């Protein structure tokens, strides 16, 4: 697979496995050993999908974990 962020190429097993994005699909999240970007990857084909960023889950919302670690409010300064 090829990192969608820095272009680093390697076997998808060289990318650190983080978790399975969906229990009903072969999409997993792996971290680039070079730049640390999170890539979604199809475990069956080894093809990288998209970079995984907070709030941008390419497979849609799931598990209800979004929002558990919310951003710090910006309106507490005054
Ligand atoms: Zn990378």
Radius of gyration (Å): 15 Å
Q: Tell me the helix content.
A: under 10%
Structural class: mainly beta
End-to-end distance? 48 Å
Number of helices: 0
The SSE string, one letter per element, is EEEE
- The overall strand count is 4
Gross morphology is globular
Listed once per kind, the bound small molecules are: zinc ion
Spatially, the strands of the biggest sheet line up as 1-2-3-4
Structure in a nutshell:
The chain has strands at 16-20, 27-31, 38-42, 47-51.
Write the layout of secondary structure elements.
Blueprint: E1 16-20, E2 27-31, E3 38-42, E4 47-51
Antiparallel strand pairs: 1-2, 2-3, 3-4
The site of zinc ion has 8 residues, from loops.
């Amino acid at each position: 697979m090829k990192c969608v962020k820095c272009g680093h190429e390697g076997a998808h097993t060289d990318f650190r496995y983080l978790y399975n994005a969906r229990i009903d699909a072969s999409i997993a999240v792996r971290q680039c050993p070079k730049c640390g970007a999170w890539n979604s990857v199809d475990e069956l084909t080894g093809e990288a999908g998209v970079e995984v960023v907070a709030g941008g889950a390419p497979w849609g919302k799931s598990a209800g974990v979004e929002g558990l670690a919310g951003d710090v409010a910006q309106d507490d300064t005054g």
